[in-house]
Amino acid sequence: MIIGGDRWSNWSGSVVCKPRKIVRPPDEVDLAATVRCAEGNVRAAGNGMSFSPLCDTGGTLIDLSVFNGLTGFDAGKSVATIGAGTPMWEIASLLHPEGYALNTMGDNDRETVSGAVSSGTHGSGWNLGSLSSEAAAFNLVLASGEVLRCAGDENPEIFAAGRTALGLFGMMTEIGMMVRPRYKLVKTYFVHSIDETFRQLDGMMQANRHFEFFWYPYDDQIVCKSLNETNARAPEPRSAPAMRARGERPTPKTLLQRTIYEALPFAPHLMLQPSHRLLSVLRKSFGRVRWSNEAFPSPRIVRFNEMEYSVPYEKGADAVREIAEAIRKKKIVTAYPIVFRTVAADDIWMSPHYGRRSAAISVHQYHRQNPRELFETCEAIFRAYGGRPHWGKVHTLTAAEAAKLYPKYDDFRALRKKLDPTGKFLNRHLGAIFPE
Ligand SMILES: Cc1cc2nc3c(=O)[nH]c(=O)nc-3n(C[C@H](O)[C@H](O)[C@H](O)COP(=O)(O)OP(=O)(O)OC[C@H]3O[C@@H](n4cnc5c(N)ncnc54)[C@H](O)[C@@H]3O)c2cc1C
């Protein structure tokens, strides 16, 4: 997100940088020349929806928004090739006329496909992995300017690691995403007591295509949400411009939420419990049927900062209970729920879900409130449960910790060094986690 002529900020406003240059190359040849000749470090930016300083640079920031649209379609393999800078809200309008859709999505459609794949963005699902695991191939511009195609049978090591590589291997220009015949989802909300939620958790996770829950820690009930396939009638799919507008338009509900977030710090002890009950009620909404791309994301108008860690699924219930208890015990002021989702295991080297099914647990803080106490408290608990951070969200993981958590960490570092020997694609944040 460019703010002013020469500055860049992420969505939440927590990362602001002043690159020497912000470049929007018109094609792959120009991009390769830009990368090869760039002085200082070079970072690719998607739509700046990450909370961590992944795109932070004083060097060259590359905007790949020109790499947009459907560039290939292989119905036999169920793979659609999509320009790297294509926003998620646009993808359905490209696939729907072909009769196809993405297998899964996160709860936000403002990201670009390359930002989502590079950072391991995910939705929820017992048997569904992250969007990185849905990538079947990609084209990559290396630091040298060379262009590589990577897939299971072409540069397989770079493919295995490069699906969650945070822009460290190079610039993706197009990505082959796995697709399936288009489908509709029915969204259902229901409320359980805390004990009942945990008693039924495994069953609800397995019985629904997508299941997640929202726990406002000062409330004694939990809001559960499922998404399941249906043949029921859905409204006509929205056009791409309508999907774009939908994500930016405030609603009475978001205005009320913002008012609560603003007011809470002034009278926390009076307001925490009643506001959490009210926010639980507001979160619950009517069940409805929509095409998948409209069912997954919700408009996210009110800005916040977020931390998310993935812990082994079996430890998820204990971890989330401990987090809720710690927030209450320390009387931490937050107006957001703890969100609990599952993500299937994958084999992507630096994926938080490498080799294990995860419970992905996230906590949020309103962007005008200091998140430090909340995040420090929760991060200590996540770490104790063997948590691996979402790379696009706030975390303080060090190189030594990463080496212990990711079995392929050393291989990833070695491959990064081979592909980018001068560290062109590193910035300060990433250099600390993956030192040269
Ligand atoms: C409101 C909101 C809701 C969210 N919901 C979810 C969710 O449901 N699930 C989830 O997992 N995450 C979620 N996130 C996090 C978000 O999906 C990720 O951080 C994602 O990376 C953002 O995509 P982006 O296009 O904005 O990429 P950016 O944040 O701009 O970049 C992310 C990374 O991708 C790299 N990158 C971008 N383009 C390229 C390219 N062409 N080649 C190589 N590298 C590239 C960047 O260098 C950077 O390292 C949410 C974030 C917000 C703000």
Task: Provide a descriptive summary of the structure in words.
This protein has 436 residues and is an alpha+beta fold. Helix content is 31%, strand content 25%. It has 14 helices and 20 strands. The chain is globular and about 60 Å long. The model has no long low-confidence stretch (mean pLDDT 95). The site of flavin-adenine dinucleotide (FAD) has 32 residues, from strand 5, helix 3 and strand 12.
Ligand types? flavin-adenine dinucleotide
User: What is the CATH topology descriptor of the largest domain?
Assistant: Vanillyl-alcohol Oxidase, Chain A, domain 3
Gap from first CA to last CA: 29 Å
Unreliable spans are: none
CATH superfamily of the largest domain: FAD-linked oxidases, C-terminal domain
Rg, please?
21 Å
Helix content: 25-40%
Per CATH, the class of the largest domain reads: Alpha Beta
Mean pLDDT: 95
Q: How many extended strands?
A: 20
Count of helices? 14
Structural class: alpha+beta
Arrangement of strands in the largest sheet = 16-13-15-14-18-19-17-20
The biggest beta sheet reads: 8 strands, antiparallel
Number of domains: 2
Quickly give the CATH architecture of the largest domain. 3-Layer(aba) Sandwich
Identify the overall geometry. globular
Measured by DSSP, the beta-strand proportion falls in 25-35%
